[in-house]
Amino acid sequence: MTLNVSIRHQFSGFNLDIAFSAGSGVTALFGRSGAGKSTIAQAISGAFAPTEGHIALNEEVLFSSEQRVNRPAHRRGIGYVFQQDLLFPHFSVQGNLEYAQRYGRSQTGTTNLSEILDILGIDHLFHRRPAGLSGGERQRVAIARALLSNPSLLVMDEPLSALDDPRKAEILPYIERLRDHSQVPILYISHSVSEIARLADQVVAIDNGRVIKTGSATDVFADPNIVPQLGLQSAGALLTATIEKHEDDGLSKLQSASGPIYLPRLDAEIGQSVRVRVLAQDVMLSSVQPENISALNVIQGRVSAIKLGRGPGAIVSIESAGNTILARVTRRSVQALNLEIGSSCFAIIKSVSVAPNQIGRG
Asked: Which of 12, 61, 180, 275 has the largest count of CB atoms under 10 Å?
Protein backbone atom coordinates (compact mmCIF):
# COMPACT_ATOMS: atom_id res chain seq x y z
CA MET A 1 0.00 0.00 0.00
CA THR A 2 1.18 3.47 -0.82
CA LEU A 3 -0.58 6.62 0.30
CA ASN A 4 0.64 9.85 -1.27
CA VAL A 5 -0.56 13.14 0.18
CA SER A 6 0.25 16.66 -0.96
CA ILE A 7 -2.32 19.27 0.09
CA ARG A 8 -2.53 22.97 0.81
CA HIS A 9 -5.29 24.97 2.45
CA GLN A 10 -5.46 28.37 4.09
CA PHE A 11 -7.54 28.80 7.23
CA SER A 12 -7.99 31.93 9.26
CA GLY A 13 -4.66 32.29 11.05
CA PHE A 14 -3.41 28.85 9.97
CA ASN A 15 -1.88 27.56 6.74
CA LEU A 16 -1.78 23.83 6.00
CA ASP A 17 0.98 22.82 3.57
CA ILE A 18 1.68 19.10 3.87
CA ALA A 19 3.35 16.45 1.73
CA PHE A 20 4.22 12.90 2.77
CA SER A 21 4.01 9.26 1.69
CA ALA A 22 3.04 6.25 3.78
CA GLY A 23 3.55 2.55 3.18
CA SER A 24 2.37 -0.63 4.88
CA GLY A 25 2.31 -1.09 8.64
CA VAL A 26 1.52 1.80 10.98
CA THR A 27 2.30 5.34 9.88
CA ALA A 28 1.76 7.90 12.64
CA LEU A 29 0.88 11.56 12.21
CA PHE A 30 2.37 13.12 15.31
CA GLY A 31 2.18 16.67 16.63
CA ARG A 32 0.73 18.87 19.31
CA SER A 33 -2.98 19.65 19.43
CA GLY A 34 -3.77 22.14 16.67
CA ALA A 35 -0.87 21.06 14.44
CA GLY A 36 -3.29 19.98 11.69
CA LYS A 37 -3.32 16.18 12.14
CA SER A 38 -7.09 15.61 12.20
CA THR A 39 -7.59 18.02 9.30
CA ILE A 40 -5.19 15.91 7.23
CA ALA A 41 -7.08 12.74 8.21
CA GLN A 42 -10.37 14.35 7.21
CA ALA A 43 -8.92 15.34 3.84
CA ILE A 44 -7.71 11.78 3.23
CA SER A 45 -11.06 10.24 4.22
CA GLY A 46 -13.08 12.72 2.14
CA ALA A 47 -14.73 14.72 4.93
CA PHE A 48 -12.80 17.83 3.96
CA ALA A 49 -11.69 19.15 0.55
CA PRO A 50 -8.50 21.26 0.58
CA THR A 51 -8.06 24.20 -1.76
CA GLU A 52 -5.42 22.43 -3.80
CA GLY A 53 -3.37 19.29 -3.81
CA HIS A 54 -3.34 15.60 -4.61
CA ILE A 55 -4.24 12.46 -2.60
CA ALA A 56 -3.75 8.96 -4.03
CA LEU A 57 -4.14 5.53 -2.44
CA ASN A 58 -2.62 2.55 -4.27
CA GLU A 59 -2.28 4.79 -7.33
CA GLU A 60 -6.03 5.51 -7.29
CA VAL A 61 -6.62 9.26 -7.22
CA LEU A 62 -8.95 10.19 -4.36
CA PHE A 63 -8.53 13.93 -4.67
CA SER A 64 -6.87 16.18 -7.22
CA SER A 65 -7.52 19.88 -7.56
CA GLU A 66 -5.76 19.87 -10.92
CA GLN A 67 -7.73 16.92 -12.32
CA ARG A 68 -10.92 18.07 -10.56
CA VAL A 69 -11.32 14.75 -8.78
CA ASN A 70 -12.94 14.53 -5.35
CA ARG A 71 -14.13 10.98 -4.72
CA PRO A 72 -16.94 10.79 -2.13
CA ALA A 73 -16.00 9.47 1.30
CA HIS A 74 -18.01 6.25 0.91
CA ARG A 75 -16.10 5.38 -2.28
CA ARG A 76 -12.58 5.90 -0.93
CA GLY A 77 -12.22 2.52 0.73
CA ILE A 78 -11.08 3.99 4.04
CA GLY A 79 -12.12 2.74 7.47
CA TYR A 80 -12.24 5.46 10.11
CA VAL A 81 -11.95 5.08 13.89
CA PHE A 82 -12.90 8.24 15.79
CA GLN A 83 -12.09 9.48 19.29
CA GLN A 84 -15.59 8.36 20.32
CA ASP A 85 -16.63 4.82 19.36
CA LEU A 86 -19.94 5.91 17.71
CA LEU A 87 -21.42 2.41 17.95
CA PHE A 88 -25.13 1.90 17.29
CA PRO A 89 -26.56 1.67 20.84
CA HIS A 90 -29.63 -0.33 19.77
CA PHE A 91 -27.49 -3.04 18.16
CA SER A 92 -25.49 -5.71 19.94
CA VAL A 93 -21.81 -6.09 19.17
CA GLN A 94 -22.82 -8.71 16.63
CA GLY A 95 -25.30 -6.31 15.04
CA ASN A 96 -22.71 -3.52 14.80
CA LEU A 97 -20.23 -5.83 13.11
CA GLU A 98 -22.76 -7.38 10.75
CA TYR A 99 -23.82 -3.88 9.70
CA ALA A 100 -20.23 -3.14 8.66
CA GLN A 101 -20.03 -6.39 6.71
CA ARG A 102 -23.38 -5.83 5.02
CA TYR A 103 -22.71 -2.27 3.92
CA GLY A 104 -18.95 -2.46 3.49
CA ARG A 105 -17.09 -1.69 0.31
CA SER A 106 -17.03 -5.27 -0.91
CA GLN A 107 -18.42 -8.64 0.06
CA THR A 108 -15.36 -10.39 -1.41
CA GLY A 109 -12.62 -8.81 0.70
CA THR A 110 -9.95 -10.63 2.68
CA THR A 111 -11.21 -9.45 6.07
CA ASN A 112 -12.15 -12.45 8.21
CA LEU A 113 -14.58 -11.99 11.09
CA SER A 114 -13.20 -14.75 13.34
CA GLU A 115 -9.65 -13.50 12.80
CA ILE A 116 -10.60 -9.93 13.73
CA LEU A 117 -12.51 -11.13 16.79
CA ASP A 118 -9.45 -13.07 17.90
CA ILE A 119 -6.94 -10.27 17.28
CA LEU A 120 -9.03 -7.73 19.20
CA GLY A 121 -10.21 -10.15 21.86
CA ILE A 122 -13.92 -9.36 21.56
CA ASP A 123 -15.48 -12.72 20.67
CA HIS A 124 -16.93 -13.05 24.20
CA LEU A 125 -18.71 -9.68 23.79
CA PHE A 126 -20.68 -10.75 20.74
CA HIS A 127 -24.16 -10.64 22.27
CA ARG A 128 -23.73 -7.61 24.53
CA ARG A 129 -24.82 -4.06 23.75
CA PRO A 130 -22.46 -1.04 23.83
CA ALA A 131 -23.97 0.31 27.06
CA GLY A 132 -22.70 -2.77 28.88
CA LEU A 133 -19.11 -2.47 27.65
CA SER A 134 -16.13 -0.63 29.09
CA GLY A 135 -14.60 2.25 27.11
CA GLY A 136 -11.73 0.04 25.96
CA GLU A 137 -14.11 -2.73 24.88
CA ARG A 138 -16.28 -0.30 22.92
CA GLN A 139 -13.26 1.10 21.11
CA ARG A 140 -12.06 -2.38 20.21
CA VAL A 141 -15.50 -3.10 18.74
CA ALA A 142 -15.31 0.19 16.80
CA ILE A 143 -11.94 -0.86 15.36
CA ALA A 144 -13.36 -4.25 14.38
CA ARG A 145 -16.35 -2.57 12.71
CA ALA A 146 -14.05 -0.34 10.67
CA LEU A 147 -11.95 -3.34 9.59
CA LEU A 148 -14.99 -5.37 8.59
CA SER A 149 -15.97 -2.72 6.05
CA ASN A 150 -13.01 -4.14 4.07
CA PRO A 151 -10.97 -0.91 3.83
CA SER A 152 -7.75 -0.40 1.88
CA LEU A 153 -6.58 1.89 4.70
CA LEU A 154 -7.57 2.24 8.35
CA VAL A 155 -7.44 5.77 9.77
CA MET A 156 -7.36 5.95 13.57
CA ASP A 157 -7.85 9.54 14.74
CA GLU A 158 -6.82 9.91 18.42
CA PRO A 159 -8.57 6.60 19.19
CA LEU A 160 -7.46 6.51 22.84
CA SER A 161 -7.84 10.17 23.79
CA ALA A 162 -11.26 9.64 25.39
CA LEU A 163 -10.01 6.78 27.58
CA ASP A 164 -8.42 6.94 31.00
CA ASP A 165 -4.96 5.46 31.59
CA PRO A 166 -6.13 1.97 32.69
CA ARG A 167 -8.33 1.65 29.60
CA LYS A 168 -5.46 2.82 27.37
CA ALA A 169 -3.20 0.19 28.92
CA GLU A 170 -5.95 -2.36 28.23
CA ILE A 171 -6.36 -1.57 24.54
CA LEU A 172 -2.77 -0.85 23.41
CA PRO A 173 -1.71 -4.53 23.31
CA TYR A 174 -4.66 -5.26 21.03
CA ILE A 175 -3.66 -2.48 18.63
CA GLU A 176 -0.13 -3.94 18.66
CA ARG A 177 -1.60 -7.31 17.69
CA LEU A 178 -3.60 -5.62 14.95
CA ARG A 179 -0.41 -4.01 13.63
CA ASP A 180 1.41 -7.35 13.66
CA HIS A 181 -1.30 -9.61 12.21
CA SER A 182 -3.67 -7.55 10.06
CA GLN A 183 -2.91 -6.88 6.41
CA VAL A 184 -4.65 -3.50 6.51
CA PRO A 185 -2.22 -0.54 6.75
CA ILE A 186 -2.96 2.00 9.47
CA LEU A 187 -2.66 5.78 9.61
CA TYR A 188 -2.53 6.56 13.33
CA ILE A 189 -3.08 10.13 14.52
CA SER A 190 -2.01 11.11 18.03
CA HIS A 191 -0.17 13.68 20.13
CA SER A 192 0.83 10.95 22.61
CA VAL A 193 4.51 10.09 22.26
CA SER A 194 4.17 6.88 24.29
CA GLU A 195 1.38 5.55 22.03
CA ILE A 196 3.26 6.29 18.83
CA ALA A 197 6.58 5.00 20.15
CA ARG A 198 4.90 1.66 20.90
CA LEU A 199 2.91 1.35 17.68
CA ALA A 200 4.44 3.19 14.74
CA ASP A 201 6.71 1.88 12.00
CA GLN A 202 7.00 5.33 10.43
CA VAL A 203 6.37 8.75 11.98
CA VAL A 204 5.42 11.97 10.20
CA ALA A 205 6.06 14.77 12.70
CA ILE A 206 3.92 17.86 12.09
CA ASP A 207 4.11 21.33 13.57
CA ASN A 208 1.93 24.31 12.66
CA GLY A 209 0.61 22.71 9.48
CA ARG A 210 3.95 21.53 8.09
CA VAL A 211 6.03 18.35 8.13
CA ILE A 212 9.17 18.86 10.21
CA LYS A 213 10.56 15.31 10.09
CA THR A 214 9.74 11.84 8.78
CA GLY A 215 11.37 8.52 9.53
CA SER A 216 11.21 5.53 11.82
CA ALA A 217 9.91 6.03 15.35
CA THR A 218 13.46 5.43 16.60
CA ASP A 219 14.96 8.12 14.34
CA VAL A 220 12.27 10.74 14.95
CA PHE A 221 12.03 10.47 18.73
CA ALA A 222 15.81 10.32 19.17
CA ASP A 223 16.27 13.59 17.27
CA PRO A 224 17.06 16.36 19.79
CA ASN A 225 15.69 18.94 17.34
CA ILE A 226 12.20 17.45 17.83
CA VAL A 227 12.31 18.01 21.59
CA PRO A 228 10.41 21.35 21.41
CA GLN A 229 7.51 19.50 19.74
CA LEU A 230 7.65 16.61 22.21
CA GLY A 231 7.91 18.75 25.30
CA LEU A 232 10.83 18.26 27.67
CA GLN A 233 8.94 15.82 29.89
CA SER A 234 8.26 13.56 26.90
CA ALA A 235 11.68 13.65 25.23
CA GLY A 236 13.32 10.26 25.06
CA ALA A 237 14.80 7.48 22.95
CA LEU A 238 13.45 4.18 21.67
CA LEU A 239 15.47 0.97 21.99
CA THR A 240 14.68 -2.40 20.43
CA ALA A 241 15.64 -5.45 22.46
CA THR A 242 14.90 -9.15 22.81
CA ILE A 243 13.88 -10.83 26.06
CA GLU A 244 16.71 -13.20 26.97
CA LYS A 245 15.81 -14.39 30.46
CA HIS A 246 13.43 -13.90 33.37
CA GLU A 247 15.59 -13.74 36.51
CA ASP A 248 14.64 -15.27 39.88
CA ASP A 249 14.74 -11.88 41.61
CA GLY A 250 11.87 -10.44 39.55
CA LEU A 251 13.86 -8.84 36.74
CA SER A 252 13.83 -9.58 33.03
CA LYS A 253 17.11 -9.50 31.12
CA LEU A 254 16.85 -8.01 27.65
CA GLN A 255 19.56 -8.05 25.02
CA SER A 256 19.98 -4.99 22.80
CA ALA A 257 22.62 -4.01 20.27
CA SER A 258 24.08 -1.73 22.96
CA GLY A 259 24.27 -4.49 25.57
CA PRO A 260 22.05 -6.01 28.27
CA ILE A 261 19.11 -4.12 29.76
CA TYR A 262 17.43 -5.15 33.03
CA LEU A 263 13.80 -4.22 33.68
CA PRO A 264 11.15 -5.28 36.20
CA ARG A 265 9.75 -8.62 35.02
CA LEU A 266 7.89 -8.37 31.73
CA ASP A 267 4.77 -10.38 30.99
CA ALA A 268 6.15 -11.72 27.73
CA GLU A 269 7.82 -14.83 26.42
CA ILE A 270 11.57 -15.33 26.12
CA GLY A 271 12.68 -14.46 22.59
CA GLN A 272 10.02 -11.80 22.07
CA SER A 273 11.15 -8.51 20.58
CA VAL A 274 10.15 -5.41 22.54
CA ARG A 275 10.39 -1.64 22.21
CA VAL A 276 11.68 0.17 25.27
CA ARG A 277 11.22 3.92 25.54
CA VAL A 278 13.72 5.59 27.85
CA LEU A 279 12.86 9.15 28.88
CA ALA A 280 15.70 11.64 28.64
CA GLN A 281 15.00 12.88 32.16
CA ASP A 282 15.69 9.36 33.50
CA VAL A 283 19.21 9.07 32.02
CA MET A 284 22.34 10.04 33.92
CA LEU A 285 25.72 10.50 32.24
CA SER A 286 29.27 9.69 33.29
CA SER A 287 32.54 10.33 31.48
CA VAL A 288 34.11 7.25 33.12
CA GLN A 289 32.93 3.68 33.72
CA PRO A 290 30.74 3.95 36.85
CA GLU A 291 31.33 1.52 39.70
CA ASN A 292 29.44 0.57 42.86
CA ILE A 293 26.15 2.16 41.81
CA SER A 294 22.61 0.90 42.25
CA ALA A 295 21.57 1.40 38.61
CA LEU A 296 21.84 -1.84 36.62
CA ASN A 297 21.87 -0.47 33.10
CA VAL A 298 25.08 1.17 31.91
CA ILE A 299 25.43 1.73 28.17
CA GLN A 300 28.65 2.96 26.62
CA GLY A 301 28.64 5.23 23.61
CA ARG A 302 29.84 8.51 22.15
CA VAL A 303 28.29 11.97 22.17
CA SER A 304 26.73 12.69 18.78
CA ALA A 305 24.91 15.96 19.55
CA ILE A 306 24.48 18.53 22.30
CA LYS A 307 21.47 20.83 22.15
CA LEU A 308 21.48 23.66 24.66
CA GLY A 309 18.16 24.99 25.91
CA ARG A 310 17.22 28.58 26.60
CA GLY A 311 17.62 28.03 30.31
CA PRO A 312 20.10 25.93 32.29
CA GLY A 313 19.23 22.64 30.56
CA ALA A 314 20.71 20.64 27.69
CA ILE A 315 19.84 17.51 25.70
CA VAL A 316 22.79 15.21 24.97
CA SER A 317 22.55 12.48 22.29
CA ILE A 318 24.61 9.33 22.84
CA GLU A 319 25.23 6.93 19.93
CA SER A 320 25.76 3.30 20.90
CA ALA A 321 25.86 0.43 18.39
CA GLY A 322 23.23 2.03 16.18
CA ASN A 323 21.03 3.14 19.08
CA THR A 324 20.56 6.75 20.10
CA ILE A 325 19.94 7.60 23.74
CA LEU A 326 18.90 11.06 24.89
CA ALA A 327 19.88 12.49 28.28
CA ARG A 328 18.40 15.62 29.78
CA VAL A 329 21.05 17.28 31.93
CA THR A 330 22.20 20.78 32.88
CA ARG A 331 24.70 22.93 31.02
CA ARG A 332 26.83 22.77 34.14
CA SER A 333 26.97 18.98 33.87
CA VAL A 334 27.98 19.21 30.20
CA GLN A 335 30.84 21.49 31.18
CA ALA A 336 31.84 19.48 34.27
CA LEU A 337 32.08 16.26 32.23
CA ASN A 338 33.88 18.06 29.39
CA LEU A 339 31.35 16.66 26.94
CA GLU A 340 31.76 17.47 23.27
CA ILE A 341 30.93 15.79 19.99
CA GLY A 342 32.80 12.49 19.85
CA SER A 343 33.42 12.22 23.60
CA SER A 344 33.22 8.75 25.16
CA CYS A 345 30.30 8.61 27.56
CA PHE A 346 28.28 6.19 29.68
CA ALA A 347 24.48 6.42 29.86
CA ILE A 348 23.07 5.18 33.18
CA ILE A 349 19.45 4.02 33.37
CA LYS A 350 17.66 2.81 36.51
CA SER A 351 15.62 -0.33 35.86
CA VAL A 352 12.62 0.94 37.83
CA SER A 353 12.54 4.27 35.96
CA VAL A 354 11.10 2.62 32.83
CA ALA A 355 7.31 2.58 33.29
CA PRO A 356 5.25 -0.37 31.94
CA ASN A 357 3.43 1.92 29.49
CA GLN A 358 6.81 2.71 27.88
CA ILE A 359 7.32 -0.92 26.85
CA GLY A 360 5.62 -2.51 23.86
CA ARG A 361 5.92 -5.34 21.37
CA GLY A 362 8.73 -4.96 18.86
From this structure: 275
